[in-house]
Inverse folding.
């Protein structure tokens, strides 16, 4: 059987995980598969040859991206040179759109088939980017069900493959087990605070979330608060905010390294920044309040570019205002605490939300890796077109 050669680029740990599942599904269908490019340890475990590690592509905000532009541009140009000198049968860019779409455009112009896995959020902020995507991509693999229609209108072949988190998360999360793992009381109110994964997000949202927590503690004296944070830097920022906002108030706060899924599963209500964590909370069937703050100039620019009435993925995916969104000036400790209490006080609303989130979970649960692999095979001259 002919060896099939696929080049890939995955950025950061999330891309490494997503790509590793896709590689495993492809290898089941293509025993003589050879893969190489930029990837991480999970991809390497499937037999992927990493010419550069994926963490070289990780940047944190615009400032870091500018500082590392020369380094990243050099890697991208060297990778392009190698791939053009010995063309693969297919190139797959996994997320990392700012890096991969540039590469895909130039590879496709030289006759190399290209696939992009995870659509950029053209439906939220950057609709004009679809023109560049049309030049870059032979096939787009979409995580959300409404995305293929957007690409069809622009003449870009696309396939809905579901969201990998929906495959990973159980349909019925065990809240009692999560509380046991985190050593939380079974019958006390528990609130999870997820102020974001980026340092700028935590800096903007920690005072808001802590202010709301103090007000909630006054209303629920036996409440517990759990705060999963991803890095040492975000933990230091958050702990600094605790000192400034809560002082000696004695807020019953448990700061965790990671364990975000356990924290959300254990919680009665989640306070969360807009982003993937809000989708995780929805898949865990938890009531939530989405909040976001940013610099004034950045907010005005984003507001001008946005053309959806929501910023949170649960509301966007369900196309209705299922959970409250407190953005910028509306994001105050009093409003956030009141919105959390509204969930606590209305059992019927919580049950209705749980049922709606169950429907969403089942819609997104598609066995993503297998469906993506099947969509890719026609580009290699195998299988039926998606």
């Amino acid at each position: 059987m002919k060896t099939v050669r696929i080049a890939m680029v995955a950025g950061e740990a999330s891309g490494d995980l997503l790509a590793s599942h896709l590689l495993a599904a492809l290898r089941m269908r293509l025993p003589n598969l050879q893969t190489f490019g930029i990837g991480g340890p999970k991809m390497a475990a499937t037999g992927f040859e990493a010419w550069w590690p994926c963490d070289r592509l990780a940047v944190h905000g615009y400032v870091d991206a500018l500082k590392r532009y020369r380094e990243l541009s050099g890697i991208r140009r060297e990778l392009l040179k190698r791939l053009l000198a010995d063309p693969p049968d297919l190139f797959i860019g996994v997320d990392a759109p700012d890096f991969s779409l540039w590469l895909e455009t130039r590879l496709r112009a030289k006759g190399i088939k290209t696939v992009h896995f995870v659509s950029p959020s053209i439906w939220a902020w950057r609709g004009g980017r679809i023109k560049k995507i049309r030049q870059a991509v032979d096939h787009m693999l979409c995580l959300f069900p409404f995305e293929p229609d957007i690409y069809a209108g622009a003449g870009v072949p696309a396939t809905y493959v579901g969201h990998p988190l929906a495959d990973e998360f159980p349909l019925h999360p065990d809240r009692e087990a999560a509380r046991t793992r985190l050593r939380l009381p079974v019958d006390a109110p528990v609130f999870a605070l997820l102020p974001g994964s980026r340092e700028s997000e935590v800096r903007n949202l920690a005072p808001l979330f802590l202010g709301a927590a103090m007000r909630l503690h006054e209303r629920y004296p036996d409440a517990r608060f759990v705060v999963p944070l991803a890095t040492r830097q975000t933990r230091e920022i958050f702990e600094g905010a605790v000192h400034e906002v809560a002082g000696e108030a004695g807020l019953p706060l448990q700061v965790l390294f990671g364990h975000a899924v356990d924290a959300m599963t254990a919680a009665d209500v989640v306070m969360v920044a807009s982003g993937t964590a809000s989708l995780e909370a929805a898949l865990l069937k938890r009531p939530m309040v989405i909040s976001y703050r940013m610099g004034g100039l950045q907010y005005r620019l984003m507001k001008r570019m946005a053309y959806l009435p929501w910023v949170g993925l649960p509301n966007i995916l369900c196309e209705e205002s299922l959970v409250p969104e407190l953005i910028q000036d509306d994001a105050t400790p009093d409003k956030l605490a009141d919105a959390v209490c509204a969930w606590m006080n209305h059992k019927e609303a919580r049950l209705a939300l749980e049922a709606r989130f169950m429907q969403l979970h089942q819609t997104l649960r598609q066995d993503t890796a297998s469906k993506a692999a099947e969509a890719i095979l026609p580009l290699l001259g195998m299988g039926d077109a998606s």
Observations:
- The chain has a mean pLDDT of 89.
- The first helix runs from residue 12 to 29.
- Residues 175-364 form a domain with the Rossmann fold fold (CATH 3.40.50.2000).
- The radius of gyration is 22 Å.
